[in-house]
Amino acid sequence: MAGGLSQSAVNEQAGAKSPLALLVASLTLALCLQFLTGSVRNLPKAVLAAVVLMAVKGLINVGEIVRLRRVTRLEFRVAMVALAGVLLLGILKGVLLAVVASILMLLARAANPYVATLGRIPHTRRYSDLERHPDNEPVPGVLICRCEASLLYFNVEGVLHEILRRAEGEHPPALVVLDLSTSPYVDLAGARMLKQLHAELARRGITLRLAEAHASVRDILRAEGLEGLVGHVSRRTGLADAVDDWGKGGSG
Question: Which of 19, 158, 230, 247 is deepest in the core (most CB within 10 A)?
Answer without folding.
Answer: 230
